[in-house]
Write a structure and sequence with these properties.
Chain B: It comes from Pedobacter nyackensis. Chain B: Pfam families: Haem_bd. Chain B: InterPro entries: Haem-bd. Chain B: This is Haem-binding domain-containing protein. The complex is a heterodimer of chains A (about 190) and B (about 150). Chain A is mainly α and about 190 residues long. Chain A has one domain. Chain A has helices spanning about 1-30, 35-45, 50-65, 70-85, 95-115, 120-140, 155-160; strands spanning about 150-155, 160-165, 185-190. Chain A has a three-stranded antiparallel beta sheet, with helices on one face. Chain B is mostly helical. Chain B has one domain (about 1-150). Chain B is built from eight helices and no strands. In chain B, α3 (about 45-55) crosses α8 and α6 (about 100-115) packs antiparallel against α8. Chain B is elongated and about 75 Å long. The model of chain B has no long low-confidence stretch (mean pLDDT about 90). Classes of the chains: A mainly alpha (about 190), B mainly alpha (about 150). The interface of A and B includes residues 105, 106 and 130 of A. Bound molecules: copper (II) ion. Copper (II) ion (CU) binds near residues 113, 123 and 127 of chain A.
Chain lengths: ~190, ~150
C-alpha cells in the first residue's frame, strides 16, 4: 500500500515536472524567432494540415462518387480508412486527441463500409453523407491547410438534402453524380 | 452399393458428431444500464418490433428458435450474431458516443427503408421477424424523432 502511494506521488511529481518543461520550451522557441527551425515549423504548419492524408483520401472519394464510380469510391474508402488508422496523434494535446478519437471511431466505420460496397453506390453515398459531417468537424478542429468549400445539395434523399466538402469552387455533385452533376450551392468556405 | 452405404453412414456420423459442437449462447442479463431503452424513450410497440425483428442479431438477448440447435444452422446464426453485434448492439447503445449514436440511428432508418434489414436470408425461415409496412413506419418515425431530440442535446 505504502509503495503504491509512493509511486503515485512520484509519478504525479514527474508529470508536473514534464508539463513545466514543455511550457518553458514553448516559450523560448516562441521568442527565438530567428532560429531556422522555428521559422520552418511555422511555415510548414501554414502549408500542411495534420489531416492532409485524410483530406486527400476523402476528396478522392468525393470525386469518384461524382463520377458514379463505385470501384474507385471503394478503393478511396479503403485509403481513407488507412489514413485514419495511421494518423499520428502523439503530438496532440489531450483534448484534441480525444476529439480525434471520437470523430475517427465513427468515420473509420463509414470508410470501411464504403470500401466493402462495390456494386452498391447508393449505400456508399449513405455512408458518405455521415462521413462528410465527420470530416467537416475534423477540418474545424485541425485546419484544412488549403481552401475548401462546403457544398449543399438540396435534392438528395427525397429533398432532405446533404452536404459535402470540395476542393474546388465549381459544383461537382457526389450524391446525384452524372445525372445532375452541377446541382448544389457553396454554403461555406473553410481555410 | 456397399460404397454408397459406407458414404451415407460416414455422412450421418459427421452430422451427429457436429451436433455436440454447440456455439455458446448469446444471452446475458448484464449491463442493462447501457441498453438503448435506458438512454432513449422507447414506446412499448417500438421496443416490441425491434425485439422480434432485430434483437436476435443486434443485442445480448438472442431468442433462439429450435432449429438453431441443429448444426450447422446454429453456426450460421452464431456468425450473424457476431457480425451483427459488431455493427450495432442495442444492449450497449448507451456506451456509444453521441456521434456514433446519431450515426447508428441514421443507419437503422436506412436499413429499414432499403429493406436490407432484417437480413432477408433470415426472414426466409424466421417469418416472425418480417416487418409489415405499419411496423416499418412506426420504427422510421421513432428513428426520426429520436435523431431530432438527440441532435438538440449538447
Ligand atoms: Cu454500410
Amino acid at each position: 500500500m505504502k509503495n503504491i502511494i509512493l509511486s503515485m506521488a512520484t509519478s504525479i511529481l514527474f508529470l508536473a515536472a514534464c508539463n513545466n518543461e514543455t511550457k518553458k520550451t514553448e516559450a523560448t522557441s516562441g521568442a527565438d524567432s530567428t532560429s531556422i527551425t522555428a521559422v520552418d515549423t511555422t511555415l510548414k504548419s501554414q502549408k500542411e494540415s495534420p489531416i492532409q492524408n485524410i483530406l486527400s483520401a476523402y476528396l478522392q472519394l468525393k470525386n469518384a462518387l461524382a463520377k458514379d464510380n463505385d470501384k474507385d469510391a471503394a478503393s478511396s474508402g479503403k485509403a481513407l480508412e488507412t489514413a485514419f488508422a495511421d494518423f499520428d496523434k502523439s503530438a496532440l494535446p489531450g483534448d484534441k486527441a480525444k476529439l480525434y478519437d471520437d470523430i475517427a471511431a465513427d468515420a473509420k466505420e463509414h470508410a470501411e463500409h464504403i470500401g466493402a460496397n462495390v456494386g452498391n453506390i447508393k449505400h456508399q453515398r449513405e455512408h458518405f453523407e455521415t462521413l462528410s459531417q465527420d470530416v467537416y468537424d475534423l477540418v474545424n478542429a485541425f485546419g484544412a491547410g488549403q481552401k475548401l468549400y462546403v457544398d449543399h445539395c438540396p435534392m438528395y434523399n427525397e429533398n432532405k438534402g446533404a452536404n459535402w466538402i470540395s476542393e474546388s469552387k465549381e459544383i461537382s455533385n457526389p450524391y446525384l453524380g452524372q445525372s445532375m452533376p452541377t446541382c448544389g450551392t457553396v454554403r461555406e468556405e473553410l481555410n | 452399393m456397399k460404397r454408397i452405404k459406407a458414404v451415407a453412414l460416414a455422412f450421418l456420423i459427421i452430422i451427429l458428431a457436429i451436433q455436440f459442437l454447440q456455439p455458446a449462447r448469446n444471452k446475458n442479463g448484464q449491463a442493462v444500464s447501457k441498453d438503448f431503452s435506458k438512454v432513449f424513450t422507447v414506446p412499448g410497440n417500438v421496443q416490441g418490433i425491434l425485439k422480434k425483428s432485430c434483437f436476435d442479431c443486434h443485442s445480448n438477448q438472442t431468442e433462439y428458435p429450435w432449429y438453431t440447435y441443429i448444426q450447422p444452422v446454429g453456426w450460421w446464426m452464431d456468425s450473424h450474431i457476431r457480425k451483427g453485434k459488431e455493427e450495432l448492439n442495442f444492449s450497449e447503445f448507451g456506451s456509444y458516443s453521441k456521434r456514433r449514436q446519431m450515426s447508428k440511428l441514421k443507419s437503422i432508418g436506412e436499413s429499414i427503408e432499403n429493406e436490407t434489414m432484417p437480413l432477408p436470408s433470415y426472414t426466409l425461415i424466421h417469418k416472425k421477424a418480417r416487418l409489415s409496412n405499419e411496423e416499418k413506419d412506426l420504427i422510421l418515425n421513432w428513428v426520426k424523432n429520436t435523431r431530432n431530440s438527440l441532435s438538440l442535446k449538447p
